[in-house]
């Protein structure tokens, strides 16, 4: 058996490192076990290399979970301002991009360095390249881990293995396997914050438009997100699509307002009055990206002869165009999956976990934190805020 530890943490990502720091500051001897070659890989690649480390507007309403109340306690006790205080203490410059999203001015590497500095200062031991082969509960209590670097034991075990997204970065289903091993229900998982794919005629209709971006309001299952959409080679992406993807499942209807914030019919009526000689296609190309407007005319509005001047459009015809602009149907066939998803929806059922300590309700000493739990944030720094907050809750309790 190597060393004496009070707490073993599996996974040196956002949640694992934060939990380790919090527990070690309380005098706990903590070992963090990471199977990848370095820690915090998702932090490094996050936010386009600048890590959107929190969102100042975080509320429980920004999370998806079978139990929407579960995240409340931890989020209330460790707020974005607590994390910002740490960032400022380490002299890391940051800025707000939009909607409360805070990014590093320079690099995500500074966030990883900050967490590792805090770990070092608090005496946390971190082992990379270390794979857990077996987890046992000896009769004497606690947990015993058989790993590729020897055996470790401690009275508390924190599962911080994250979700399934980006397997090339070290993501694994190990956290879910451990949960099942200890009798914890795991809710079905699927990719979230992920580009949507189109197929057949729905794909053909947007073919050749890849790279075109426009502001939209995307709606699905009673939710809507206003932000930009980007047409890709395989379908659609961009913040509005990533956000709505977490609420979309195959077969669900998805609608887009292509003129968010304005009344499409009113806009068309005004343009008809102001520029009666202009063609509908020309007018649409001023409201939308030109290539996108052209394609709308060819693939959706051809029957209305969009080359005709605006004055020739009857009231019902204008209403038809307005309805298309305000409620454009997007038929997605699937998502790009875990390969590109930012998060995993579903996971360890929160019903069997304490919302104040993240400790299992059935296996004393076992904790689940971060993305492995069935708590998934919106795009915009909410997922890291959940990682920090849930980790802090567990780190305070172990
Ligand atoms: C491309 C991308 C960009 C993102 N950008 C943002 C952003 O800007 N803002 C935001 O809030 N969220 C962002 N996210 C989401 C965010 O990264 C995650 O929600 C967050 O990292 C979850 O933290 P975690 O500690 O639970 O899991 P992770 O950070 O994924 O950490 C889990 C750790 O466990 C390790 N591990 C897994 N299995 C084992 C095992 N068997 N043994 C040992 N170790 C194991 C992994 O290698 C990993 O280091 C992004 C995600 C991706 C993929």
Task: Explain how this protein is built.
With 398 residues, the chain is of the alpha+beta class. The chain has two domains: 7-190 and 342-395, 3-Layer(bba) Sandwich (FAD/NAD(P)-binding domain); 196-335, Translation factors (Elongation Factor Tu (Ef-tu), domain 3), CATH 2.40.30. The protein is built from 13 helices and 22 strands. The chain has helices at 14-25, 41-45, 72-77, 80-89, 109-122, 174-181, 200-206, 239-245, 264-274, 280-287, 290-299, 315-326, 382-397; strands spanning 7-10, 30-33, 52-55, 63-64, 94-96, 101-104, 125-127, 132-136, 143-147, 150-154, 156-159, 186-192, 196-197, 213-220, 223-231, 235-237, 254-257, 328-330, 334-335, 343-348, 366-368, 376-377. α9 (264-274) packs across α12 (315-326) and α10 (280-287) crosses α11. The longest helix has 16 residues, at 382-397. The radius of gyration is 25 Å and the shape is elongated. It binds flavin-adenine dinucleotide (FAD). Flavin-adenine dinucleotide is lined by residues 10-16, 33-36, 41-42, 45-47, 51-52, 131-132, 160-162, 165-166, 170, 172, 174, 342-343, 370-372, 381-384, 387.
Question: What would the keywords be for this entry?
Answer:
single chain; 398 residues; alpha+beta; FAD/NAD(P)-binding domain; Elongation Factor Tu (Ef-tu), domain 3; 2 domains; seven-stranded antiparallel beta sheet; five-stranded parallel beta sheet; 13 helices; 23% strand; binds flavin-adenine dinucleotide
Rg is 25 Å
> What are the distinct ligands in this entry?
flavin-adenine dinucleotide
Count of strand segments = 22
Which spans of ≥5 residues are poorly predicted at pLDDT below 50? none
Given the C-alpha coordinates, what overall shape results? elongated
> Biggest sheet: strands, sense, closure?
7 strands, antiparallel
- The mean pLDDT is 96
Number of domains: 2
Q: Strand sequence of the main sheet, in spatial order?
A: 18-17-14-15-16-13-19
What is the name of the CATH architecture of the largest domain?
3-Layer(bba) Sandwich
**CATH top level label of the largest domain:** Alpha Beta
């Amino acid at each position: 058996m190597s060393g004496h530890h009070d707490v073993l943490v599996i996974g040196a990502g956002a949640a694992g490192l934060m939990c380790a720091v919090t527990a070690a500051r309380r005098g706990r001897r903590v070992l963090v076990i990471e199977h990848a070659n370095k820690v915090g890989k998702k932090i490094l690649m996050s936010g386009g290399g600048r890590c959107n480390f929190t969102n100042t507007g975080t509320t429980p309403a920004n999370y998806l979970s079978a139990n929407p109340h579960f995240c409340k306690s931890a989020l209330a006790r460790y707020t974005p301002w607590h994390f910002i205080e740490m960032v400022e203490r380490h002299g890391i410059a940051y800025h707000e991009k939009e909607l409360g999203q805070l990014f590093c001015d320079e690099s995500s590497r500074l966030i990883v360095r900050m967490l590792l500095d805090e770990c070092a200062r608090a005496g946390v031991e971190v082992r990379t390249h270390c794979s857990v082969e077996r987890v046992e509960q000896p009769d004497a209590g606690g947990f015993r881990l058989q790993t590729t670097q020897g055996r470790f034991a401690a009275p508390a075990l924190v599962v911080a293995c994250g979700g399934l997204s980006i397997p090339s970065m070290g993501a694994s289903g190990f956290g879910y396997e451990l949960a099942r091993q200890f009798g914890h229900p795991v809710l079905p998982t699927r990719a979230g914050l992920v580009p949507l794919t189109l197929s057949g005629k729905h794909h053909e209709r947007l073919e050749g438009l890849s790279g075109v971006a426009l502001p939209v309001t995307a709606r699905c299952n009673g939710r809507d997100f206003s932000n930009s959409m980007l047409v890709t080679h395989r379908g659609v992406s961009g913040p509005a699509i990533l956000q709505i993807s977490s609420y979309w499942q195959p077969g669900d209807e998805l609608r887009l307002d292509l003129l968010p914030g304005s009344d499409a019919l009113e806009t068309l009526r005004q343009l008809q009055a102001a520029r009666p000689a202009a063609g509908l296609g020309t007018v649409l190309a001023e409201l939308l990206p030109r290539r996108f407007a052209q394609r709308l005319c060819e693939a959706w509005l051809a029957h209305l002869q969009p080359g005709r001047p605006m004055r020739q459009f009857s009231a019902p015809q204008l209403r038809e165009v307005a309805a298309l602009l305000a409620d454009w149907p997007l038929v997605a066939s699937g998502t790009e999956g875990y390969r590109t998803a930012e998060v995993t929806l579903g996971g360890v059922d929160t019903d069997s976990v304490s919302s104040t300590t993240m400790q299992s309700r059935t296996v004393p000493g076992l904790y689940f934190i971060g993305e492995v739990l069935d708590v998934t944030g919106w795009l915009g720094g909410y997922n890291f805020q959940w990682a920090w907050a849930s980790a802090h809750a567990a780190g305070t309790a172990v």
